[in-house]
Amino acid sequence: MSSQVVLSARGLVKKFGGVTAVNNVSFDVSSGEVFCIVGPNGAGKTTTLRIIAGILEPDSGDILAFGGKVQWGSIEYKRLISYLPEDAGVYKNLTGLDYLKFMASMYFDDSASIEEAVERGVKLSGLGVRVGDKAGGYSKGMKRRLLLAAALMVNPKLAILDEPTAGLDVVHSVDMRKVILGYVKTTGSSAIVSSHNMLEVSYVCDRVALINKGVIVDVGTPGELLEKYKVPNLEEAFIKAVGGLD
Amino acid sequence: MRRVLAMSVKEVKSLLKDRYVLLAVIIAPFFSLLIIGSIYSIGFRQVVEEAREAQVSLPRDTAIVLEDPGDLIAKSIALILNANTVDSVGEALEHYRIIIVFHRGFSESLENGRRGNVSLIVKTSKPWSLSDTMITSSLTTLLSRVVETYLSQKFNISRELLSNPLNVNVKPYVNGREFSQAEAAFLTLAVMATVFAILILSMVTLQVGALSIGMEREARTAELLLALPASRAEIVFGKMVGAVTVSFAAFISFIAGGLVYYYALLPVMMSELGEGALQATTIFQVFNFIDIRIVSIILLALALHIINATLTGILVGVLFAGDIRGALTASSYIGLALIAPLIPEVTGFSVPPALEAIFTLTPYYPPYKLVESIILGHYMKAPLYLTIIIAYFAILTLLTSKLMSGERLIYGIAVRRLKPPI
C-alpha cells in the first residue's frame, strides 16, 4: 500500500433535522488503495459517500484531496472522482452507448478523449452488442455493470462506489468485484467502497472503516481488525467493535 | 459549453422517447387547435343561425348613418331596424359603439343588380375580440336578412342577389383609429394564435420541464447528475436547452394542427352559412394583410414564453415532481393557475365575480403584453416587457440552480402518482 494520501475526510458532520447521520467522521484514503466503509443499514455510509462525492454539503468538516482543501461543489475536484450511487437507475430511453457518451462528454473536453473513454466504457461494461440497446431493457446486473463502467471509464483518481454489488446475484457480484480490483491495480487509482457484505469486504478491501450510528468506531486492514478483536470474521469484529448487538 | 450541449442532447433523447412526453408534446398540441377551433366554429354558427331566425335585434348602442339621406332603400331599412339615425360617422362615434353606414349609391347598386355597400364600425378597446367577431357576424346576418325581406317584397330581384344582397365591410375602431377589415382579420388571428399558443404551450412546456426532473427522480438518476463535474447552473441550463428543444416540437405540432383546422376543417364547418356571414368572419380574410413586424414579435414572444415556461417547469419539477406522474400533476395545476387570467382578457367572455378579482389582481402575462404593445403601437412599453421577461429568466435560473440541491432531489418532499387534472 502506498503511503501517499489522496483524500482526507476531517470531522465530517451531517444532520437531517434532529438526526445526526454522520458525526465527526474522519479517515484517509491512500493511492492505489481500496478503502471500505462497512456498517449496517442506516449507519451513515451512503451519507458519508454523498458528502465525499460532492452531492451533499456537510454541516461541518473538511475534505482534503489531491493536495488541497476541496471547496464544496468544486468542478475540478469532481473531474478527478466518480461516483456510483447505491440504487441508481439508468436512463431507460437511452442506449447503453448513449449513456456512456453522455457521461464521457461531461468529463472530457476533446473528442479524442471522449472516444477513448467510451471505448473503455464499452469494454468495462461487458455488454457486447447489447450496448446499442435501450438501457430500459437491461437486466439489473447489466444496468449495474453499465453504471460501474461509466464510473470507471473516465479514469477517476478516486472511484466512490456505494454498495456496488447490492442486489446482484453471485455471478454478477464476483464479476463486479473483479472489475473494481482490476481497475485499481492497473491504474494505481483509489476506491472508496461501502458495503454491508463482510465477505465482499474481506475480498476487496485493503483497509476497512467500521461505522455505526454515524460514527467511525475503528479503522484497519481486515487482518488487523480480526487480530485486534480476536474473531474469525469481520461480522463478529464489527459486533465487538460496536459493543455487541443492541 | 460542451457539458451543456451533452446534457441537452441527453435530455432531448430521454424526453422524446418517452410515451408521456410524446402524448403531451406531439399529440395534444396537434389536436388542441382542432378542438378549440371546432368549438369556436359551432358557437359562431349558432350566433349566425339565431340572427337568421330573427332571435336577435340591434344592440341598443347602435346608430345608423345614411351617407345619402335621400337614399330610399337605405332609409326604409333604417326605419325597419328602428335604430337611431345620425348625420355623420364622426357624430355617431361620439355616442354609439356600433355604427352601420349605408354608403352613397346603396339603392342604385341594388336596383342595378349589384350588392349594396355597408360598413359596420365597431368601437372596441382592441381590434381583435372573439365576442366582437360574434357581434359583427350576427349583425351582418341580421342586416342581410332585413334587406333580403324588404327587397323581395318591393322589387323583382335576382335570386342570387337576394341570397346575398350586401357587401359588408367590418371596421374595428380603436382609440381614434379605424382598422380595415383585412387588418383586423390579421390581428384577430395573430392575437388568437398568440393566446392559444401561450395557453396550450404553457401546459406542455411546464410539463416537459417538470418531467425532465420527474424522470430523473423516477429513474433514480438524480444522484448521478449531481455528482457530475458540472455546476448546478450548467445542469439547469443543459436541461433547459434540451427541454426547450422538445417544447419547440410541441409548437410545430400546434401550428400543424392549426393549419389543418384552417384549411380543412373550418371551410367545411362554415360552408352552410352563406357568403354574407363568411365575409364578416374576419378569419377568412387574414391573408389579405400580413404585417411581418407583428409576426416577428409574436414568434419572439412565443420563443421567450417557451423558454421561461420550460424553466418554470424545471423549477416545479425540482420542488414537487417525485416521479413522472407527480411531474404531470404538479405542472398541470400550476399551469392552470398561471394561464387562467389570459382567458377573459382576450376572449372578452365574462367571468364570475369571485374570479374577476383574481384576474384583475393578477398581472398580465409579459410575452402577451409584449405582442399587444407592438400591435397597439405602444412601442415604449415593449422594452419594459422584454426586461421583465429577461429578468424572470435570470431569477428563475439562479433560483432553480440554488434549489437543485442534493438534499432536495434526494430527500425533498415530492408529489408522486397523483392523478393529473387534465
Give the helix/strand layout.
The complex is a heterodimer of chains A (246) and B (422).
Chain A (H helix, E strand, L loop, with lengths): L4 E12 L2 E12 L3 E5 L6 H8 L7 E6 L2 E2 L5 H6 E4 L11 H12 L3 H15 L14 H14 L4 E5 L7 H18 L2 E6 L2 H7 L2 E6 L2 E6 L1 H8 L4 H8 L5
Parallel strand pairs in A: 3-8, 3-9, 6-7, 7-8
Antiparallel strand pairs in A: 1-2, 1-4, 4-5, 9-10
Chain B lengths: L1 H15 L2 H34 L9 E5 L5 H10 L2 E3 L2 H7 L2 E5 L3 H6 L4 E8 L6 H25 L4 H5 L2 E9 L2 E2 L2 H39 L2 H6 L4 H39 L4 H6 L11 H29 L3 H16 L2 H6 L5 H9 L4 H10 L6 H22 L2 H6 L11
Parallel strand pairs in B: 1-2, 1-3, 4-5
Antiparallel strand pairs in B: 3-4, 5-6
Helix pairs in contact in B: 1-10, 2-6, 2-8, 2-10, 8-10, 8-12, 8-13, 8-16, 10-12, 10-17, 12-13, 12-16, 12-17, 16-17
Give the termini distance of chain B in whole angstroms: 37 Å
CATH architecture of the domain at 5-88 and 162-241 in chain A: 3-Layer(aba) Sandwich
Largest sheet of chain B: 6 strands, mixed
- How much is the radius of gyration of chain A in Å? 18 Å
Number of strands of chain B: 6
Radius of gyration of chain B: 26 Å
Q: What's the number of domains of chain B? A: 2
Please provide the ordered H/E string of secondary-structure elements of chain A.
Answer: EEEHEEHEHHHEHEHEEHH
Written account of the structure:
The complex is a heterodimer of chains A (246) and B (422). Chain A has helices at 45-52, 75-80, 96-107, 111-125, 140-153, 170-187, 198-204, 222-229, 234-241, and strands at residues 5-16, 19-30, 34-38, 60-65, 68-69, 81-84, 158-162, 190-195, 207-212, 215-220. In chain A, helix 5 packs parallel to helix 6 (170-187). The two termini of chain A are 35 Å apart. In chain A, the strands form two sheets. In chain A, strands 6-7-8-3-9-10 form a six-stranded mixed beta sheet, with helices on both faces. Chain A has a domain at 5-88 and 162-241: 3-Layer(aba) Sandwich (Rossmann fold), CATH 3.40.50. Helix content of chain A is 39%, strand content 26%. Chain A is globular. Chain A has 246 residues and is an alpha/beta fold. Chain B has 422 residues and is an alpha/beta fold. Chain B folds into two domains: 2-45 and 191-411, no CATH class; 50-183, abc type-2 transporter like fold (3-Layer(aba) Sandwich). Chain B is built from 18 helices and six strands. Chain B has helices at residues 2-16, 19-52, 72-81, 89-95, 106-111, 130-154, 159-163, 181-219, 222-227, 232-270, 275-280, 292-320, 324-339, 342-347, 353-361, 366-375, 382-403, 406-411; strands spanning 62-66, 84-86, 98-102, 116-123, 166-174, 177-178. In chain B, strands 2-1-3-4-5-6 form a six-stranded mixed beta sheet, sandwiched between helices. In chain B, strand 1, helix 3 (72-81) and strand 2 form a beta-alpha-beta unit. The two termini of chain B are 37 Å apart. The A-B interface holds A 16, 50, 53-57, 73, 75-76, 78-79, 82-83, 85, 87-94, 98, 101-103, 105-107, 109, 134, 147 and B 2-3, 5-7, 9-10, 13-14, 17-18, 219-221, 223-224, 226-232, 405-407, 410-411.
